[in-house]
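Review box. Two proteins, two foldings.
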Amino acid sequence: MGTLSLITKPEGISSSSGRLTKRERLDKRFASAKAVRDPYDADFTEIERLARAARSRSTSTGQLKRMGNTAKQDTAGIIAGRTLTHGMSTGLSNPAKPWFKLTTGDPDLDAFNPVKLWLYAVEQLIYGHFASTNYYDANKISYSELAHVGHGVQLAVEHKEYRAVYHALDHGECWIAEDDGLRVTTLFYKPAYTVDQMVRKFPWGRLTKQVRDAYDKGDIMKLVEVMCVIEKNDDRDASKLDSMNKPWRSTWYEVRQPDKNILLKEGGFDNKPFSAPRWETTSSEVYSSAAPGFLALADLRELEFTARRKGRAMDMAVRPPVFLPGGLQQTAISLDPGSLNFINDMQGKIDVVRPDSNALSWISDEIERLTRRVNQLFYADLWMTVTEMEGIQPRNQDELMYRNEEKLTQLGPVVDRVNIEKLEVDIDRTYSILDNLGQIPPAPPELQRRPLLVNFVSVLAQAQLATSNSSIERAAQFVGFVTGMFPDAALKFDAEKAIDEFARNSHTNPKIIRSDEIVAEMKTEMAQKEKMQQVAAMAQPAQQGAQAAELLSRTQVGTGGSMLDQMMGV
C-alpha cells in the first residue's frame, strides 16, 4: 500500500506489447493508484453511512449515486463530525478573521515601510478574492472529508467571470498518489459531465460517436465518464512557455473512448492547482487510517446497534407482548391505553410480559457513554469546551485563551499538515491567478526575485500572540506606575518597539503605524523646533536686560552720575 506500487515506466520505453500511448500509460497508473485505495473503500462507505448521511457518490466506482440516509437510529456521529468540521473551518481559515500573513522571512525587511505596505496590500487582495468566490464553502467540505475519511482534495480552476472556482472533490471521485518526497503530486479525477457539457468543453472531433449521437438526439443530460489526470510535468522543456511545458500538466480523456490515441484535452498550470491534506500518514501510506472517522467507526457501529435496542426496549415498555387465552381469538380486544375489555372468567386470564424496569435506563446510559467517546474521537468535546463548561458567564479572557491553547495543542500535528498541504497551496495558487489577471501591484525593488513565505495564524497562535500583547500592556502599566515615583524608570521602556510589537501581534493595518524612518524625521523636526524655541526664550531676557541698562544709563542721580554708574560702583 505504499508509493512503490505507483512507479511507472518513463516516457518512450516500450513494453512487451509494444510502445504504450500516453492514454495507456495513464490507465495503468490509475489502475495502480486504484489498487492502493481499494482496501479503504469498505470503511469509507461505512463512515458515510454512519456519520455522513446522504452523500452523493459511491466510493468504489466514482459514479453519481446518491447514498440513502440509513443512519436513522442515532445522529451522534453526524453531530460530532459537523462540530469538528466547523471547528476546523473557524480555527484554520476563518473568513471573519486574519488567518495568514505574507512575509519575506527577514524581520528587518518586513519592517521596511514600502515592503510592509506591499505585503499588506497583497494579503488584502487574496483575502478579498477568497471572500468573493466559493473558497470558504469549498473549505468546509474539504475539512469534512479530512475529518471523516482522512484526506480532502480541493481543485482551483481559473474562471473568466468569477476569476476562480474552487471544487471540493468527493473522495469517491478522485484518487491520489505521492512522489518520493511523500507529497501528493498526482490526482486522478473523474468528473461527472453531461453530454451538453462535453460538447461545450471539448473539441467535437475528439468526442466518441456515442456522445455525438446523444447530442444530436437531444439526450444532452446523459452522463459521460471522463478521466482527468493532474501531475507534475517532469519532462517539460523549461525554455518553452506554452501550456504543454508548464510545471504542472493536465490530461483529459473519455473513459469509453476505444481509440487509445485520442485525448480530449491537454493543458498545464504554473503551479500546483489542487490541495490534498491528509490527517496522519506513515511513510508507507498514501491514505490515512488515523482520521477521527476511522477511529470512531467501532463506536459508531455499537452506537447504532444500541440505539436500535433502545427502540425495541421502548416498544416493549409501551406495547409489551400480550398472551391471550385461545378462546378469545375471535373476540375484539383493544390494547390501546385506558381501554376496557370485558371477558368471561371461563375464558381465562390475559398475561402481559413486562420488560426489566432497569433495562431502558441501562441502555440510555450506554448510549450516553458511546456518545461521549465519539465526541472525544472527533474532538467535538474540545471544540465545545468554552461554550459548555460550567461556571459564570461571560468568561475571563485569559481563561478563554487558555482553553483555546488546550484544544489545538491536541490538534497540532494535523493543523501543521493542513497548513502545508492545503492552505499554503491554496494561497500560492490564488496569488498566481491574481498575478495572471494583473491584479498584483508591482513589488518594491527589495523584493525582486525574492520568494515570499506564508505565516499561518491559527487559533493557537492567535492565543499566544494575544498573551504577548497582554504582557506588553501589563509592562506599560507597571512602568507608568513606577515612573510616578522614579521618573528615570521611563528610560527603561522602549515605547516605540512596544507599539511595533503590539501592532504586529494584533495584525494592525500597517498604514496607521508610522515607520521608523518617518518617526526619525519627525523627531529631527521636533528637536529643531525645540532648539529654536530655547534660543528665542534665551534671547528675550537678554533683550529686556539691554533695554533696562540703557534706561539706567540715561537716568541721572544728582551730581553722582547715572544710576547705572552708581550700581556698577563707578
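Next protein.
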Amino acid sequence: MGKRFFGLAAVALLALAQTGQKSGIDRSALDETCKPCEDFWRYANGTWLDKNPIPAQYARWGTFNILRDANQERTKVILENALNAKANTDERSVGDFYASCMDERTVEAAGIGPLNASLSRIAAIRTRENLVEVLRSWELQGSLGLTRVSNQADRENSKAQIVGVSGTALSLPDRDYFLGRDARSQEIRDEFLKHVAKMLELLGDPKDSTAASAKAILDFETALAKAQFSRVERRDPNKTLNKMTLADLKALAPAYDWDGVFKDLGVPGGITINVSEPGYIKTFQTQLTSAPLDTWKTWMRWRVLNERAEFLSKAFADERFHFRSTVLSGVKEQQPRWKMCAAQVDRLFPDALGQLWVAKHFPPEAKRRMAELVANMQEALRQTLQEATWLDPATRQNAVKKLEAFDPKIGYPVKWRSYEKVAVKRGDFVGSLEAAAAEDRRVSLAKIGHPTDKTEMNMTPPTVNASYSSTANSITFPAGILQPPFFYADADDAVNYGAIGAVIGHEMGHGFDDQGSKSDADGNLKMWWTESDRQKFEVRANCVTSQFDSIDLGNGIKHNGKLVTGEAMGDLGGLTLAYRAYHNSLKGKAAPVLDGFTGDQRFFLAFARVWADQARVEQQRLQVTTDPHPIAKFRANATLSNMPEFHQAFACKLGDKMVRPPDQQCRLW
C-alpha cells in the first residue's frame, strides 16, 4: 500500500484515541470554513494541517508519519532494554547490533576503514577476468553489483520457488532521472555530479579528478538506465515474466560467470530462471566487454561508497543526506541517529524485534477484532461479486473462488525465524550489518528449488502499512498499522470501517486491480476472465487512469495515470467495499448521530483523516515519478468524487467539485 499521517507523536495519538471512545472524530481537525462538497480533504483535515506544518526532518507529514514515529518510540524502548539481554539469545543479538550502530565514536574513528578491503580488491583489477571475479563475489552481498540473483515464486506455478535475475537499483531514483530532458531532471543530474565529486573527494581522490570521475559514473549508469523498463512497464506481470534455462541466461551475457555465481549462491542445477528485464542483462554484457576497465573501477569505488555512506563517519553520512534527502525530497534536517539504527534492526532482525514488539503492543483481542473486520470485508466483496451483473457466470465463479482463497495475515507471522547464526559484534557496526545481511541472503536463497511457504509475511510487525501478494493471494496487515487512528479496538464501527476497513478493502482490491486481476486463486499468472469480461474490466480501469491523468497538482506536477491506476483502483474499490461492510454491520438499524455527524458522515471523515498528509514540492515530484500511489489529497478527493454514497451523506450536488458527472464516475463492480 505504502501510505502515511497525523500530529506531534504519542500525545496527539492519545488525544485522538480518547476522542475515539465517543465518535472517533476530532472536530478540532476540521476546517469548517471549507465546504465539504468543494474540497473534502481540506474540510476533514484543514485545521490540523495548518497547525502541523511539515517538520524540518521530513519530506512529508501526516497520519502515517505520526504513527510510524510513535511505533519507533516504542521500538526504541525495546532496543534499549535489549542492550542488557542475556547472552546467546536473539534479543541479545538485537541489543548488540543496536549498540554497535549507536556507537558513533567508534564509527567516526573507523573512517573509511570498513571499505578498505573492497577498495583494495577494486584497485587490484587488471583484466576483464579480474573484473568478473569481483562482481561475482558481490553477488553474495546482494546489492553491490549490477545484477541480483534471488528466490521468487514461479508466477505460473506459485507453489515453486525458482531463480529470479534482475538488475539492481542505480544511483538515481528512477531511469527517468537519467533520461528526462525537463529542467528538473537536468538540475538533479547536475546536483548528482556535484554529490559524487564531493563523495570521492572525501574518499581521498584528488579534487581535480573528481568531476571527470563523476561524469564517467553518470554516463556509465545512463547507458544501463536506457535498457531498463519504465515504472509502468514493470507493473505488467507478463512483461517481466521471461523464463529461461541457465544456457539461455548465459547467452544473454556470456562474459559473466553465471556458473560461478550460481555455485557460490548454492543454486541447484536445472532450476528455472526468470529474467525480469532481458534487455538490461544484454546491456550489462555490453558494458562488461566494452566499457573501459578504468570506468568500471571508478564506478565500483563509487558503488561501494554509495551503498555504505549512511553507515560511515559523519562527513560521508552528511553528504549522502544532502543529496538523497535535501536535493531529492526537500528535507532540511537529519533525524536522530537512533531512528536509523532502529530501522536497520527492523530490516535485518525483523522476527527478533517483531516478537518483542508484538508482546508489548498487540494484544490478542486486537487480532481477534481485526480478523472479524477482515471476514466482514470478505463477505461484502462476495456480495458485490455476486451482484456484478456485467460478469459472465464463469468469470464470476472464478472471482469468488479467488476471494475465498484469500489468506489474511494479521499482526505477525505464524512462525518466527532464529538469528543464532548471525555474528554481531559491538564496536563493528558495518561488519555486523554485513554479517546480518549475508545471513538474510543465505536464508532467502536456500528457498530456491523448494515449495513456496505461503505463510510467510512480507512485512515486519511494527510496519505502518499493508499489502497484497499476487503469488500468495494473501493480504497482510502488520501489527504496526493496527493502532489508532486506523484501528480502535473499542471505537464506533463507522470509524473503524472508514479507516482500517478501507485499508482492508484496498488490499483485497489489489487482487482484482489492473495488475493483480491477471493472477488466479492459486496465485498463478493465468487469464481467468472471459474475453468480453476482460474488455469490460479494462474500460473500468481506464476510467480511473483517465481521471488521474487529468488532475493538475500545480507546480507543473501531474500524476501518471497508468502508474497509479492499481493503487487508485484499490482506494475506490476498498472504500466502496468498506461502506457496504459497514452497513452490513448495522443490520438494518440506523447509526447514531455522534458529535453532530451521522454514521455515514463519520465513515467518510475517518477515511479522509487517513489522508491527512502534506508533502514538500520536491517530494511530490519524486512521488509522481517513482511511486504508484497518488498524492494523499487526491487519494481522498478523487476517490470520493466517484461515490454517490458520499454525495448523499454530505448533500453534494452536480456542479460541486466533489461530484464528477454521472457519466464520468468510475465504478469497479
